[in-house]
Design brief:
The complex is a heterodimer. Chain A is mainly beta. In chain A, 0% of the residues lie in helices and 50% in strands. Chain A is built from no helices and eleven strands. In chain A, strands 2, 4, 5, 6, 9, 10 and 11 form a seven-stranded mixed beta sheet that branches. A four-stranded antiparallel beta sheet of chain A has the order 1-3-8-7, with no helix packed on it. Chain B is mostly beta strands. Chain B contains no helices and eleven strands. Chain B has strands at residues 3-7, 10-12, 18-25, 33-39, 45-51, 60-62, 70-75, 80-85, 94-101, 109-110, 114-118. In chain B, the strands form two sheets. In chain B, strands 2, 4, 5, 6, 9, 10 and 11 form a seven-stranded mixed beta sheet that branches. In chain B, strands 1-3-8-7 form a four-stranded antiparallel beta sheet, with no helix packed on it. In chain B, strand 5 and strand 6 form a beta hairpin. The radius of gyration of chain B is 14 Å and the shape is globular. The chains are: A mainly beta, B mainly beta. Chain A binds chain B through residues 1, 34, 36, 38, 42-46, 49-50, 55-56, 87, 89, 91, 94-101, and chain B through 35, 37, 39, 44-47, 50, 61-64, 97, 104-113.
């Protein structure tokens, strides 16, 4: 199985800050990577697919980059409503595998 | 633009069975792959399995942790997908979500989830 390693596991930043979350795959996955945002008690919200394509309705301050084994999710200007846990997902091969998650808190 | 509603969760004893359903509306069900994903208490998301779309013959894939115990099936007449869970273990306790994946995209719409609790 492909292992997905996310870092950091948590972070605290101020509103307006630029935030970057990384995800590393244990083997190359081309661009078959997605990012999700999840808040407690709610379903995950899709943010990014194909490493850098924004899902419909997602604000443009979210962006994704990378290919192969190293990927990043960037929030260009952190907003209070961005407080959540973020997960990456590889979908190149079965079983699909998620990263462990990054909890983002607002200072 | 598409809605998914899960049902069927509840309390079950270890070794028992449960059948979850996911009702789809607002899109052509047979065009999409349908996935199940779960979130266990205090843990991260885990992909459970998939039933591919009509063009791919409704074939299925499963995570190793559920293979041989869980079965995903589809009902085109009702625009629904089901997750039959057998030989349940305490570690299967989780909120179960269904999600759809169009060609070229992944898990782009999710249901609200249904809670499964496996306990004696």
């Amino acid at each position: 199985d492909i292992q997905m390693t996310q870092s950091p596991s948590s972070l605290s930043a101020s509103a307006g800050d630029r935030v970057t979350i990384t995800c590393r795959a244990s083997q190359g996955i081309s661009s078959q990577l997605a990012w999700f945002q999840q808040k407690p008690g709610t379903a995950p919200k899709p943010l990014i697919y194909a490493a850098s394509s924004l899902q419909s309705g997602v604000p443009s301050n979210f962006s994704g980059s990378g290919s192969g084994t190293d990927f990043t999710l960037t929030i260009s200007s952190l907003q209070p409503e961005d407080s959540a846990t973020y997960f990456c997902l590889q979908y190149l091969t079965y079983p699909f595998t998620f990263g462990e998650g990054t909890k983002v808190e607002i200072k | 633009e598409g809605q998914l509603v899960e049902s069927g969760g509840g309390l079950v004893q270890p070794g028992g069975s449960l059948r979850l359903s996911c009702a789809a509306s607002g899109f052509t069900f047979s065009d999409y792959h349908m996935d199940w994903v779960r979130l266990a208490p205090g843990k991260g998301l885990e992909w459970v399995g998939r039933i591919r779309n009509k063009a791919r013959g409704y074939t299925t894939e499963y995570a190793a942790s559920v293979k041989g115990r869980f079965i995903i099936s589809g009902d085109n007449s009702k625009n629904a997908v089901h997750l039959q869970m057998n030989s349940l273990k305490t570690e299967d306790t989780a909120v179960y979500y269904c999600s759809r994946s169009p060609n070229g995209n992944i898990l782009d719409s999710w249901g609200q989830g249904t809670l499964v609790t496996v306990t004696s």
